[in-house]
Amino acid sequence: MKIRVRVAPSPTGFLHIGTAQSALYNWLFARKNKGEFCLRIEDTDKERSTKEYEQSILDALEWLGLNWEGKVIRQSERTEKYKNALEKLLFEGRAFYCHHTKEELEGEAKDQAQNKKAQFHDCEHKNSEEGKKSGGLIRLAVERNSDRKVVFDDIIRGRIEFEAKLMSDVSLGNGFDRLLYNFTAVVDDIDMEITHVIRGEDHVSNTPKQILIYEALGKTPPQFAHLPLILAPDRSKLSKRHGAVAVVDYKKDYLPEAIINFLGAMSCTFSKEILTKQEMIQEFELSKVHKSGAVFDVKKLNWLNSQYAKKLSPEEFKKSVGIPEIPDSAVPLITERLEKLSDAHHFDYFWKEPKYDKDLLKWKKSTLENSLETLIKVKKIIKEFDFKKEKDELRKILDEFSIAVGDRGLIYWPLRVALTGKEKSPDPVDIAYVLGKEKTLERVRFALGI
RNA sequence: GGCGCUAUCGUCUAUCGGUUAGGACAUAUGCUUUUCAAGCAUAGAAGCGGGGUUCGACUCCCCGUAGCGCUGCCA
Hints:
Elements: E1 4-7, H1 17-32, E2 36-41, H2 51-63, E3 73-74, H3 79-91, E4 95-98, H4 102-114, E5 137-140, E6 149-154, E7 158-163, E8 171-174, E9 178-179, H5 181-191, E10 196-200, H6 207-216, E11 223-227, E12 230-231, H7 247-251, H8 256-266, H9 277-283, E13 294-295, H10 298-311, H11 314-321, H12 331-335, H13 368-384, H14 391-405, H15 408-420, H16 428-435, H17 437-448
Parallel strand pairs: 1-2, 2-3, 10-11, 12-13
Antiparallel strand pairs: 4-5, 5-8, 6-7, 8-9
Helix pairs in contact: 1-9, 5-6, 8-10, 13-15, 13-17, 14-15, 15-17, 16-17
This protein binds one RNA strand through helix 4, strand 7, strand 8, helix 5 and strand 13.
EC number: 6.1.1.17
Subcellular location: Cytoplasm
GO cellular component, one term: cytosol
């Protein structure tokens, strides 16, 4: 049987970084095993789902390069399927109408909690005539009269067991108009012929409920693999309150390759730190995925991103940061000291005239007068120098001059500030060569007030 | 409270019973030096606790403990 996996985001928000990781592992698993990776939009919650979120999720997945097979499946377009399945279950007596009100259910849960009992709803309408009459929540009738255990062998975690007698009669829908997650997901996974359900650890407790639904529908459940969670620094599940959790939030600062590498290596063992998607596909095994949650370490992401940025061609880099006016020769100077893509704006003196306070021209070990005087001499050297020659030639001349002066800083500091308006920058000679002789002299003259 | 999952440097992790417990990020220091980076070198930094099993346990088992997840007529 052909391996088929899926990622099933809900369009009630932007693509979460955890969903992206889950999508990546599904994608890697499919690619590795020559299977298919599908995309299903879980938009049964009509109040919270929007088309805008759906589109942004699709865009984010594409940006990450996680391409899916076939058409996008939308649950909102499959209501007939669910209704048929639900009717069948009702007809066969495997599902029933639970006529309890919300208040009654809440009261029961409260009681159970107070008495330190497990919280579940074992509905008495399950086998009654009342349960056949429509009204209220539709539930799956869970057989709990024995010591029955619902068991599955998680590919990542091994055998996991739940006692059937502690489970609620699983809620499938509020009437036929509002179908619920556990039910629609199972119906879809059956129809889509999903062989492996690879999803976040937060779904392990849904798994026994879903297995029961598979059985009621007369189907064999797929293989399950529950991925560890991505954690915030406080080790709780990464969520909005911790800051940026949407993939789109990372778009302006990070290369998709860096994000993929980071998410992939965070919860799975590979042979090296930096690797391409192709290499990940080669090495990927579900058995190499970790069991415990991993803290999202932005520092490591930054490092990875800087490694990838250094490999970019000038064209690629300019496109990635969205600043077409960066001179090509400035790119290596920028990537060498950049962590996040948006840091490129700190180097705007390469394409914009710098603004700065004249006092900045003063070298810290000297006076402003001395600094400006030296700059005049530097200007003369540059003016007489032919930029067609190697820049090391210019450096050599400047170095000789600095030896005569006895202080390299006195030469380079005022020049740096004149060219960049900043205290920190790449080597002024490198910058001069990016700017060209004319522009360089122009900025030096400006600094001198000429 | 119930159920489930997890447990090695600050963080991500390697180790499939025998290692000076390895690597990466981060941190510190040094080299270089006109500033900032990059690069290179060096350093510090870890097996949750208690019982077993075994000649030998970070590794296997049990019990604790802690953290996390779920506990919706959300997904």
